[in-house]
């Protein structure tokens, strides 16, 4: 609605402009589209609009059913170059046909893709030159000018049209023109034109919520649609067969709200373009290519239109001094390897108490002992586990650091070489035993789901495990019977939610699971560094979605005889999220074992510390609670 | 169909603001830039007396109990969509607020249209003989009582847009295809709303173009369709209803009683294992029509009768439309080559 209100305001002012000073805006065609104006604009671009048909492929894209309806494309080169929305081909068809004006149906091949603008370039071999449309640069557009969206999906003879105005420019991090003309699968891949028949951009589904190829398709008939301008330089690269990606700087900001926080760098991993250009933690980005950036989201906006491989000039503030650096943006940032000192910590009055030192770990080798209190790293005071974690976020694996500890009243400084965070179990950890308690029901307002919680009695913070059983499990007492001894022995709280449907967990339930966990954290004494979600078979797959839905909350993911959900494959380890994975094969079945190994390998590749263990089913509670006890490792 | 209340409100707001604004834009635009045409308010004022709001049954099942209609004669003939609203006693409310109980003269199930009669004289109406056609780009106005916002002497709501396309209606309501499958004017205005069905679509001059059809989704793209049945088809249906010929079939594509099959042609396809299996030939029966016309194993059937076969299932649907005695034209892909093939299964 907000977008529409903005458009309304824009349109109303256009009316006043018209009435008052027509001559002032003569350079932009700010006039109301008459029937004849629409038809003459359409006639100009019509020969350049093609129909696309496909054979085979998948039957759904991101939950949207693939239909047999023809799709639309736009000629961008007379020798047979055609561009379309990637959404139109996301089902990966076996065969693609393009039907251009005055041509037979011709087979097409995919040449390249623009993953940032969600475009795909196709090539056909036409018998004669195709009609090329005229393009209009995005600097020549104005909000309020007439815009016509055209598709060729309904009728081969006559393109379908939808008329509106340009509602906004530089949307979706500076990549798209917004219009109130109807944009839908009936014209994705077709052009948005002005009244002179010039192409402003290609219609694609776009959404501020995400860059997946089908994000934004749900917005038809909503008064909001998008077209991405065709930039000649980018198009030339695509014609040369080069695919394009959104450029990344590779920084993480100290941010609570992108529209309120100033862009102060919280992390920039060593392999990121930011770090290579000389940027450091604590630097405040003031300008990108001369455009002021006082908020985090202004940085995102300034970088949004850039492709990987492009160079940007960054002006930043370091210790009251303005500096400048040139960074070459990257396609993707390698997954982050978290640093580890080799110790288990515990909150202490001042600093962090060391409750265990891993034998052969960097801390042990340097001479740090149990009961030492860690108080500083590289001279920087560390007052809490949170501060320790934040500091480690900027320490590269293999670097040498100075760790200050208090042993009794005496302060000592040790030099140690940091290793990569590993999930390996360390033997002989003192158990934090707790006293038995009983199950309590937990509910979340306006949610029909049920959840039971078990919170052992202890004056120390408990670890927390959310256990997602098989969807049909309806007896929390029985679940508790299996877990209780180990929960008491390791001071682990247990949440046992039930699925609404007896056959499956659904994605809609993720919100409830996060909320009930938040509630448990508020009511009970929970260690925020040892919160994990896990489950068996489909419960495990659901757990993987939950863990990735709030990565800062869920420090651990436990999969038992369960593959992660397919969409979890896109996640990688990141500086801000110190997540670890435990995979347990308790099935003694070749097929499941292979699955577990595949996912272990996948998580390893994405730099998640991961452990793969085998056990018989009775050993699950022990393995899981022990692993949880060691989750807060630094 | 149902909307959540939130969607309803959104749609309502959208219409309300957009409607008023576009009316304002047109007004200014036409008055300033094209002084010779009637102003938009004048056009709308001339159309409104022809519109009626129709109230009837349906409320019990949480379905809307109202729809729209308009006069097509000066003595009280009203055309509207045939729906459950007309199942019980129907009240018609005229633009000036007069109420009348309507008599159902008849309906045509395939056109999904009905004719009502109320007792009035010298009534403004759309003359079917003066109706006009729309083409993509034609400016249109849509008059309807969408969401039942208008009551008593409140006028129907007006929306503006253009004709987006004119194509045969391929739509469904729930899981069933709509029985009307003739031409449809797809309009670029959100007319697909509860209660809007039976409304009038006119051009910029207020001349009658079509009737807003019942809410349905495209059978091809799954999107909600904003469409109107062209005036010519509505007129044809009215004539049939008045003549009592409501069983007359429309000239829609009928499936032949004995369609051609893959077996008759002599083709065995690659097993249909996934949702959109490409139609590859697995085997050609010796001595069959397929063999005579040169088809081979591993050929991909890309067209039947000039239309792309998007999958094995689509190929089967396509063949179901073809009589076994008629010629079948195929295009196949063999490696990089595309070959046209004509095949006659029954040689007599």
The run of helices and strands of chain B is HHEEEEEEEEEEEEEEEHHEEHEEHEE
Strand count, sense and closure of the main sheet of chain B? 6 strands, antiparallel, barrel
Query: Can you give the mean pLDDT of chain B?
Result: 86
Second CATH tier, the architecture of the largest domain in chain B: Beta Barrel
Largest sheet of chain A: 8 strands, mixed
Name the overall outline of chain B.
Answer: elongated
Describe this structure in words.
The complex is a heterodimer of chains A (634) and B (348). With 634 residues, chain A is an alpha+beta fold. Chain A folds into four domains: 2-239, Thrombin, subunit H, CATH 2.40.10.120; 252-328, Pdz3 Domain (Roll); 339-420, Roll (Pdz3 Domain); 439-629, Alpha/Beta hydrolase fold, catalytic domain (Rossmann fold, 3-Layer(aba) Sandwich), CATH 3.40.50.1820. Chain A is built from 13 helices and 36 strands. An eight-stranded mixed β-sheet of chain A has the order 29-30-32-31-33-34-35-36, sandwiched between helices. A six-stranded antiparallel barrel of chain A has the order 1-4-5-8-7-6. A six-stranded antiparallel barrel of chain A has the order 9-10-11-14-13-12. In chain A, a hairpin with an 8-residue loop joins strand 29 (439-442) and strand 30 (451-454). The longest helix of chain A is centred in the first third of the chain and has 19 residues, at 2-20. The two termini of chain A are 47 Å apart. Chain B has helices spanning 5-33, 40-47, 231-242, 262-265, 289-292, 312-319, and strands spanning 51-55, 66-71, 77-81, 90-94, 99-108, 113-117, 139-144, 157-168, 171-173, 176-177, 183-187, 200-203, 208-212, 217-218, 227-230, 267-269, 281-284, 300-304, 307-308, 328-334, 337-343. Chain B has two domains: 5-242, Thrombin, subunit H; 262-343, Pdz3 Domain. In chain B, strands 1-2-3-6-5-4 form a six-stranded antiparallel barrel. In chain B, strand 18 and strand 19 (307-308) form a beta hairpin. Chain B is an alpha+beta fold and 348 residues long. Chain B is 19% helix and 31% strand. At the A-B interface, helix 1, helix 2, strand 1 and strand 10 of A face helix 1, strand 8 and strand 18 of B.
